[in-house]
Specification:
The chain is mainly α and 160 residues long. The protein is built from five helices and no strands. It has one domain. It starts with a helix and ends in an 8-residue tail after the last helix. The model has no long low-confidence stretch (mean pLDDT 90).
Length: 160
């Protein structure tokens, strides 16, 4: 049970750290991962909110937490990177669907960033499959529930 809680915290860190760092640093280091490029459909590849700063912040926060709780820095770095890769995949799909960076896409906004790292945790840690899926679903549901609260508190720019 403790392991599931630690993995849940890592999902929160991977996805929350970029938001916190963006609020603290404003425009400093705000370089888009896609370099501002557009896809062949004329839409941005990912959009301006997916930055290298966020990728580093989420990965490093997971690395540090994972090392601290004894899961190892390499596991943490890969876990964080996979969570953020899932977020990039989600953004890519949303752009192809014609949705803006801030547009809401229920489940698409939450599941890829949870399922990719949890699949790695399932394989790496021999976590029961039901537990890996449960942590991913819990993260997705809590994200849907708490994002509006974080928006009202001025932490998030969008309520979703």
């Amino acid at each position: 049970m403790l392991l599931s809680l630690e993995l849940f915290v890592m999902l929160v860190l991977a996805n929350g750290s970029p938001v916190v760092v963006a609020r603290l640093l404003h425009q400093t280091g705000n370089r888009p991962v896609d370099g501002g490029r557009v896809w062949r459909d004329g839409r941005p590849v990912l959009g301006p909110s997916k930055t290298w700063r966020g990728l580093v912040a989420g990965t490093v926060s997971c690395l540090l937490f994972s090392a601290w709780v004894g899961l190892g820095w390499l596991f943490g770095a890969l876990f964080g990177l996979l969570a953020l890769l899932g977020d990039l995949v989600s953004s890519f799909i949303k752009r192809r669907m014609g949705l803006a960076s801030s547009a809401r896409a229920l489940w698409l906004d939450q599941l890829p960033e949870a399922l990719l790292p949890m699949a790695m945790a399932w394989l790496w840690l021999s976590l029961p499959l039901w537990e890996a899926v449960a942590v991913a679903l819990l993260f997705a549901l809590s994200n849907m529930l708490f994002s509006p609260v974080l928006y009202r508190l001025g932490i998030r720019k969008q309520p979703h």
